[in-house]
Design goal:
The protein starts with a strand and ends with a strand. It has eight helices and ten strands. The C terminus is likely disordered. Helices cover 33% and strands 23% of the residues. Helix 3 packs parallel to helix 5. It has a single domain, classed as Rossmann fold (3-Layer(aba) Sandwich), CATH 3.40.50. Bound molecules: adenosine-5'-triphosphate. The site of adenosine-5'-triphosphate has 12 residues, from strand 2 and helix 1. Keywords: ATP-binding, Nucleotide-binding, Transport. Pfam families: ABC_tran. This is NitT/TauT family transport system ATP-binding protein. One of its GO terms (molecular function) is ATP binding.
Length: 264
Amino acid sequence: MTVVVEGVSKVFPGKGSDEVTALSDIDLTVGDGEFVSLIGPSGCGKSTLLRLIADLDSPTGGTLTVFDKTPRQARLDQDYGIAFQQAGLLPWRSVRANVELPLQLHKVAGRKERVNELLEMVGLSDFADRYPDELSGGMQQRVAIARAFAEKPKLLLMDEPFGALDEMTRERMQGELVRLASESGAAVIFVTHSIPEAVFLSDRVVVMSPRPGRIREILSVDLGRGVDRGEGLREDTSFFERVSAVREALHGGAPTGVRGVETR
Ligand SMILES: Nc1ncnc2c1ncn2[C@@H]1O[C@H](COP(=O)(O)OP(=O)(O)OP(=O)(O)O)[C@@H](O)[C@H]1O
């Protein structure tokens, strides 16, 4: 298993009785090469869950493993790539140098070619020698995505990575992400606010509810993966059925009678 989350809770201390239970009793497993999206209203704990997996914070209760290791060990071993909402680029390094950074740290050979390939993938070949503050927010995010992919990780943790992109670029990046993840066999845990985005990308969509943050439902999308999914999928009836099922789950109704959508 790539990620196993068992009985995890996270309480942030507040003043007196103001503590916030960000997550309560979360159980989730993510298989090798599986694409799982987390969706739910603001404040339901999506980012917190991702941060616990990435060892950027620790749980108050329960256990997590990443590739059968503690999150700390997986972080130290750099077992995954991260692309979060804030691009987190180094302002003094060019676009090329930002993408190259993880490869340089690990003294990977053939870096120049790999960086060129990555920049092409995110459509930024012409901006390789620019600096982050010369780019739009969406372009900065694309640099961060290229960097997350640099080492072909077997797990990618992504927190609304496409939030700042225009709709056309966003759809193109979604297609690229599905293709890359499927080709490299990487598992992805992907936080989003967009129902169609979650359905397009995922094998399973985890619907969360707030106060306290819990998993309300996990829906299998089951529309085929990666290269099998052309852009035409977005206009397919089965796609709309899944979108409706996720919407109903978000609003608390049981998605009854929706063909092909499992709820568990
Ligand atoms: N460092 C912190 N200290 C105190 N409370 C926090 C902290 N981080 C998150 N929280 C609280 O935990 C809850 C879950 O936050 P989280 O950011 O995980 O939600 P989210 O689902 O990612 O929200 P959004 O969709 O708005 O990004 C919120 O109520 C938030 O205020």
